[in-house]
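REQUEST ID: PR-0412
SUBMITTED BY: lab tech R.K.
PRIORITY: routine
TASK: structure prediction, single protein chain
INPUT:
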Amino acid sequence: MSEITIRPLTAADREAWLPLWHGYLTFYKATLPAEIDDVTFGRLTGGAEPMGGFLAERDGQALGMTNWVIHRTTWSEKNICYLQDLFTVPEARGTGVGRKLIEAVNAMARQKNCFRVYWQTHETNLQGQALYDKVADKSGFIVYRQPLV
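STATUS: complete
OUTPUT:
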């Protein structure tokens, strides 16, 4: 079996990214209109937004993806990177794919002079938390949200 390759998401990756994106949404029991797929992928790959992604592959098969957003913060002169979405296919979990995707985001954020990478996960995502507890610190913050539509 060959190595896992992590590479930046490109406009040519829609067919590889879309099933991973839908797998991510399904994992979190979410559904979005198809237009959001188009808008999101365009933002991630169009170059006009402070957003992007990475794909994890082995032997040409997409195993996982992550999407990130860089934004300003009141806590530093430097920007901050939000690792917004991370997903691996079930058969790739526990094989190092998630860790490599996080490492790719960290390296990109360092290159872009961000002062921190952060992310959140659902309290029921115990397998994800087993990895996250090894590679990052829990902030202790609880997330609240208010829909505006």
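NOTES: Residues 97-111 form the longest helix (15 residues).
REVIEWED BY: pending
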